[in-house]
């Protein structure tokens, strides 16, 4: 039986590249996106081993509905990739709660709701791994420049929740907390240090090589540990 992965935010950026690379490697891929009708690049990859599902991760009802629809599908790997930067221009002096709360819902809360909803699927699979894309910008120890209140706090909250999850699910399920590098995507912009192909290739390597000691570790794209 082919190894199976479920990926959120699979229609563009690093998520789309994960789909391309896992299917090339012989995996079965559940590729989730919030607007399948507009996911043209994803549908170019669709086939017997790439199944496209509608999923807005900000909608808890959609998460539980998809988990129910896939109840008989063991998953080797869940990749929480979907994320947003948050409202542009949200600087101190102009902060507002609504965009911040929306960002927390997508970046911080949804990955945990996904883990909760798909726990049984992951326990039924062989790989037993939840990999979540966080950001070095969520590191308090690494923050030398300030600003980016919304994105930074959403990823710091995500990291705190994932660390708890790594303890709660040990030793059965590995919880990987991965910084993908500064990547040339819509979010990372054109000045990023690596492209999505390189980022997904290196992240797949980190996921494949992860051992129990890597669960709950804030891991940089080069495999080193990022301070919380
Ligand atoms: N690029 C970087 O340099 C960088 C650095 C550190 C961390 N990261 C993290 O890496 C992950 C992927 O980033 P990326 O660079 O590939 O970003 P991207 O190109 O902006 O793509 C973001 C993806 O997330 C999806 N998404 C956003 N909100 C969603 C929602 N509510 N429900 C479902 N999907 C949603 C988007 O779907 P739509 O097309 O529907 O909007 C899109 O597929 C994110 O978690 C990001 O925080 C990126």
Automatic annotation (TrEMBL):
One of its GO terms (molecular function) is oxidoreductase activity, acting on the CH-OH group of donors, NAD or NADP as acceptor. PANTHER family: SHORT CHAIN DEHYDROGENASE (PTHR45458:SF1), SHORT-CHAIN DEHYDROGENASE/REDUCTASE SDR (PTHR45458). This is Short-chain dehydrogenase. It comes from Acidihalobacter ferrooxydans. The lineage of its organism: Bacteria, Pseudomonadati, Pseudomonadota, Gammaproteobacteria, Chromatiales.
């Amino acid at each position: 039986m082919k190894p199976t992965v479920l990926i959120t935010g699979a229609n563009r950026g690093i998520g789309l590249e994960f789909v391309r690379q896992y299917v090339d490697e012989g995996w079965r891929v559940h590729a989730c996106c919030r607007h399948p009708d507009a996911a043209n690049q994803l549908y170019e990859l669709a086939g017997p081993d790439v199944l496209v599902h509608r999923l807005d991760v900000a909608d808890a009802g959609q998460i539980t509905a998809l988990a129910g629809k896939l109840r008989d599908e063991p998953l080797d790997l869940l990749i929480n990739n979907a994320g947003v930067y948050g409202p542009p221009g949200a600087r101190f002096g102009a902060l507002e709660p609504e965009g911040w709360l929306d960002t927390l819902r997508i970046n911080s809360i949804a990955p945990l709701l996904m883990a909760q909803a798909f726990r049984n699927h992951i326990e039924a699979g062989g790989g037993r791994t939840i990999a979540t894309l966080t950001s070095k910008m969520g590191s308090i120890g690494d923050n030398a420049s300030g600003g980016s209140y919304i994105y930074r706090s959403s990823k710091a909250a995500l990291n705190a929740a994932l660390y708890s999850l790594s303890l709660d699910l040990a030793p059965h399920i590995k919880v990987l907390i991965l910084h993908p590098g500064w990547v040339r995507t819509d979010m990372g912009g054109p000045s990023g240090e690596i492209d999505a192909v390189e980022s997904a290739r290196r992240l797949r390597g980190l996921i494949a090589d992860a051992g129990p000691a890597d669960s709950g570790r804030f891991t940089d794209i080069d495999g080193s540990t990022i301070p919380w």
